[in-house]
Automatic annotation (TrEMBL):
Coiled coil segments of this chain: 12-99
Keyword match Coiled coil: yes
GO biological process: positive regulation of cilium assembly; positive regulation of protein localization to cilium; regulation of cytokinesis
Protein name: Endosome-associated-trafficking regulator 1
InterPro entries, alphabetized: ENTR1
Key word Coiled coil present: yes
Family: Belongs to the ENTR1 family.
Keywords annotated in UniProt: Coiled coil
Organism from which the protein derives: Pterocles gutturalis (yellow-throated sandgrouse)
Recorded GO CC terms: centrosome; ciliary basal body; early endosome; midbody; recycling endosome
Length: 160
């Protein structure tokens, strides 16, 4: 009976040690689980902040693109007006060559002014077109970034 009692005490001690070891493991796993939850929440918040930042940049770039398009339209209108003026100056120049009474110097000056105006419009048009292309490239970059964010979200959901 003493031997059986000693054997049972030994088993109880071993089971208590095993129970304490398992309890420690459970506490460690619970702590690790809590840390992972906190980490995931922070990552979700960071991702949401990044999405909001990207959306804000997208709105800003859209405004810039619209402004560039409006500017390009305005410059095209100015260009058309200057083309009409240039045509008028050329007609006047031809009339002077045919013997009209206007001074050749005035016509030359008018043609030079028209030419300068035309060159200015062309230069401004090129700049606006470059801005429009740059805005489109920026929008493409944002679209690619949003696709990447979707992939990260999908990978995050798959990993859970």
């Amino acid at each position: 009976l003493k031997e059986e009692n000693a054997s049972l005490r030994s088993k109880i001690n071993k089971l208590q040690i095993l129970s304490e070891t398992q309890a420690d493991k459970i506490r460690k796993l619970e702590k690790k689980l809590e840390e992972n939850k906190i980490k995931e929440e922070k990552e979700a918040q960071d991702l949401e902040a990044m999405v909001q930042h990207v959306e804000q940049n997208l709105r800003l770039m859209t405004k810039r693109a619209v402004k560039a398009e409006n500017n390009a339209t305005k410059l095209k209108q100015e260009n058309a007006l200057l083309q009409v003026q240039l045509k008028n100056y050329k007609t006047e120049n031809e009339a002077l060559r045919a013997g009209q009474s206007a001074s050749l110097a005035v016509v030359k000056r008018n043609a030079d002014v028209a030419l300068q105006n035309l060159l200015t419009v062309i230069t401004n048009s090129r700049s606006s077109i470059k801005q429009l292309v740059s805005g489109a490239e920026s929008l493409q970059l944002v679209a690619n970034l949003l696709k990447s964010i979707d992939r990260i979200s999908e990978m995050s959901e798959d990993g859970q």
